[in-house]
Amino acid sequence: MTEQWDPEVPMGTREPSTRGFPVGLTLVTALAMLVLLTLGGWQLQRLAWKRDLLARIEMLQAAPARPIGPVLDALNEGRDVDFTRVSATCPGLAAAPFVELYGLRDGRAGTRLISACKVDALRYRTVLVDRGFVADIVSARPPVDPAATAPVTITGLLRSPEPASFVTPPNRADRFFSRDVEAMAAVLRAERPAPIFLMVETSSNPEWRALTPAPIPTSIPNRHLEYAGTWFGLAGALAAVYAAMLWRRRKA
Question: What is the distance between the alpha carbons of residues 54 and 68, in angstroms, rounded to a whole number?
Fold first, then answer.
C-alpha cells in the first residue's frame, strides 16, 4: 500500500528522507587519492635517486680518469660503472666513421656524432664514443677516413643508454633517435661493443670547433621534493573536499 499525503499536514513539517552513503563518489575519490599518493611516493624515490646522482657527479668532478679497460672489465662483472671518468686512446678517431644521433643542447636541436673506439678489455673489443654535438645550423661534418690510424687520447664519462620511449621515432641507419648500442655497432661494424657509451669531455677534433664535447653536467635540476609536495598537497585537498561533502550531506 502506498503512503498517501495528508493535505492537512504542511509539506514543510514532513521529515526529510535520509540520503544513502555515496558509494560511487567514495570509490572515485579513493582511486584518485591512490593515484596522487603513488605519484608523490614516486617523486620521493626520484629525489633519493637524484641526490645520489648529484653526489656521484660532485665526486667525479675531482676524480682522476681511469684507464677504460679495467673499468669495462668491472662492468662485465656486473658492477655499476655509470658516470665513471675514464681515458682511452682511440686509433683514427679524428677521422673515424660515425652515425648521427638526434640531440638537444642548450635548447638547440642538432646531431651527436657516434664512433667506435677499439679497447683492450677481457670481453669487449670496442666502445661507442659520443664525440660531441653539432648544431643543425652546421651542415658540414668532420672528414672520414676508415684507414686513418693516428691515435687520439680522450677523457670522458661512461654513461648507460636510456631506453627509447613510446614517443621516440624509430631509428634509421642514417639517423638515430635513441642510443641503441647493437644497432649503431652494426652500422659501424664495431666488434663486441660494450653496452655503454663514452661521452667525451675532450675534443676528438680540436681543429673542428663546430663539434662540441659533452662534459660532466655542472648543474642538474632537482625539484622532486617540490613535485612530491604538490602531489601530496592535492591528495590532502581532495580529502578535505570529500570530508566537507560528507559533512554537508549529514547536515542536509
Answer: 23
Contacts of 144 (CB under 8 A, 6+ apart): 95, 96, 97, 98
Give the chain's radius of gyration (CA, Å): 30
Contact 222, 207 (CB under 8 A): no
Spatial CB neighbours of 150, under 8 Å, sequence gap ≥ 6: 91, 92, 94, 95
Is the Cβ–Cβ distance between 98 and 146 less than 8 Å?
no
| Mean pLDDT (the chain, rounded) | 87
Q: Where are the domains of the chain?
A: 23-63+224-252, 65-200
The tens digit of pLDDT for each residue in 183-221 reads 999 999 999 999 999 999 999 999 998 999 977 665 677
pLDDT at 237 exceeding the cut of 90: yes
Nearest to 142 by CA among 206, 185, 199: 206
